[in-house]
Design brief:
This protein is mostly helical. It has one domain. The protein is 71% helix and 0% strand. The protein contains two helices and no strands. The longest helix has 31 residues. It is elongated and about 50 Å long. The protein starts with a helix and ends in a 13-residue tail after the last helix.
Length: 76
């Protein structure tokens, strides 16, 4: 699979969803210690992946040049 900015953003959204779901478990009333510990592990793992994806997106954006001068449809 080709790595594109779109692919990276898609993977980032998946990791964000994993983090949000784990945070919900940690806040759940009556969550067991095991559930909270498992959710913490998921959060830590997903956050590490998230940070790497953000860095990859930043690098990918830095390698692309966005020339909008000739493509603008307004101001002519």
């Amino acid at each position: 699979m080709e790595i594109t900015i779109g692919n990276l953003v898609d993977q980032l959204s998946i990791e964000n969803c994993r983090i949000w779901a784990a945070e919900d478990i940690k806040r759940k009333k009556g969550a067991t210690d095991k559930e909270i510990a498992d959710a913490c592990r998921i959060t830590n793992s997903a956050n590490t992946k998230r940070n790497k994806l953000i860095q990859a997106i930043d690098e990918a954006l830095g390698q692309n040049s966005f020339n909008q001068g000739d493509n603008k449809m307004y101001g002519k």
